[in-house]
Amino acid sequence: MQYQYLNIGINLAKVQFQRNIGNATQEIKADLATQNQLTFLIGHAITQDNSYFNTSIDSIQDASRHFLNDFITHRLNENGIESDFSYRLFTKDSSDYLTAPRVYDVSEKIKTYPIELEGYLPLALNKRLILELQFKDINNYFLFQLNGLTIPSLIFIIAIIFVIVWVLRSFYWQRNIITTTNDFINNLTHELKTPVFSIGLATKILSENASETQKPVIELIQQQTERMKIHIEKVLELGALESKKQLFELKKVDFTPILERICEDFKQLSTLEDTDFSFKIENKEFSIRAEASHLENAINNLLDNAKKYSEKPKVSLKANQKGDNLVIEIQDNGLGLTKKEQELIFQKYYRVPKGNTHAIKGYGLGLSYVKEIMKRHKGKISIESDPGKGTNIKLKLPLLYE
Q1: Which of 145, 178, 202 is the last residue of a domain?
Q2: Angle between helices 57-78 and 2-33 (to 10 degrees)
Q3: Are residues 181 and 243 in the same domain?
Q4: Full domain range(s) for residue 290
Q5: How many domains, the chain?
Q6: What pLDDT does 234 receive?
Q7: Which of 11, 86, 210, 272 could be joined to 134 by an S-S link, Cβ 3.0–4.6 Å?
């Protein structure tokens, strides 16, 4: 756009120059057609007649050359042309009679404007006489004329180039950070596999000689260990999803029994942790296209968050059909979120600041994981919250119909 803008400006400058040079040449032609002091001096110079002047022919020619140059300069300036120029006065047989004080080399790119003179001078010489105006670097002159356009355009182009370079550098910098972070998370989760395996093995050994009162606790440890294994695997899979290394396969499933199992497991855990948890799932089949394990992890993540951020947790889950969607609502009585925090809460690594400390440790990955999973399921996640009044998170998943 900037190039076309300049190109149009240059073309307009050319048109204006052609008009001005046309007017100037007509005035020059008219002035040199009559006998006056200048044409009288030029006439004696080109006929080499020094009978009227008490000086040499060379002096007459030199004076004529300069006076004619000043005359042409004056006429060009009157018509708005201030470009450097040269000229030569010659006949059709190519005999040069006068040349400008400044002579251009024939190898240079020169734009010429010939003026065939009439009247006094051709009659005095008895030959057809041509005054040729010569302009060098005329395009540079046009650009100079367009300074009001070229300078802002060049500044704008430089600014655009700077912004593009800055954006590209930022993009590559961000990509490197994401790659490094994903590598760190992958390495960390791989390292966690060893202690989880050890815990699982230890609980299996303990369960062999456990008493009846100890068995429920050991079973809960085993259950949570298995759950930790699944979390580790899914974090690794999420890293692969973000790097496009793994296909996210959606299959048709009835999500009702899966959702009931999630709630029953969380209910059992809540009993041990003194959490008031209730759930209500509409008694019908919810057929959706899903990667069930990822979706299960996402819901467990939301339930864990609802439980953690309250002194006396009270959590509820409701699931029912609204229109063509399965809607899952998770309500808690926690700290709540401000409007600004609600906008940032799903960003990776973001954690809600509470002074200089976090009572609940974490890495700010959970909700970004949930949002990514909902996006992959073509679902939506929304949040309603007020500080001190708790939070309601709503998941919408499209239902399948035969």
Answers
A1: 145
A2: 130
A3: yes
A4: 248-402
A5: 3
A6: 65
A7: 86
Q: Do 355 and 308 fall within a single domain?
A: yes
User: Is 197 found in the same domain as 334?
Assistant: no
Q: Are residues 38 and 154 in the same domain?
A: no
- Residue 21's nearest CA partner among 103, 129, 146, 138 is 138
Q: What is the CATH number of the domain that holds 261?
A: 3.30.565.10
Q: Would you say 13 and 69 are in contact if contact means Cβ atoms under 8 Å apart?
A: no
Same domain flag for 209 and 258: no
Other Cβ atoms closer than 10 A to 60? 21
User: Which stretches of 81-137 are assigned E, i.e. beta strand?
Assistant: 86-91, 96-99, 110-116, 129-136
**Within this chain, do residues 253 and 392 fall inside the same structural domain, yes or no?**
yes
- Name which of 376, 286, 373, 282 is nearest 326 in CA terms: 286
Q: What is the 3-state secondary structure (H, E, C) of 145-199?
A: HCHHHHHHHHHHHHHHHHHHHHHHHHHHHHHHHHHHHHHHHHHHHHHHHHHHHHH
Cα Rg of the chain (Å, integer):
45
Specify the pLDDT at position 356: 41
If asked whether residues 260 and 243 sit together in one domain, one would say: no
Pairing mode, strands 129-136 and 110-116: antiparallel
pLDDT score of 196: 81
**Cα–Cα distance measured from residue 321 to residue 402, given in angstroms and rounded to the nearest whole number:** 16
As a residue count, the chain comes to 402
Residues 6+ apart with CB under 8 A from 152: none
- Tokens 């006998």 correspond to what residue? 35
Contact criterion met (CB below 8 Å) for 104 and 134: yes
pLDDT 10s digits, 352-374: 765 443 445 555 567 888 888 89
User: Which tens digit of pLDDT belongs to each residue from 46-66?
Assistant: 888 777 777 788 888 888 889
pLDDT at 329: 95
Burial of 274 (0-12, 13-18, 19+ CB in 10 A): exposed
Same domain, 36 and 105: yes
Q: Which residue type is seen at 351?
A: R
Please state the pTM of the whole predicted model. Answer: 0.48
- For the segment 309-344, what is each residue's pLDDT rounded down to a tens digit? 777 889 999 999 999 999 999 999 888 888 888 888
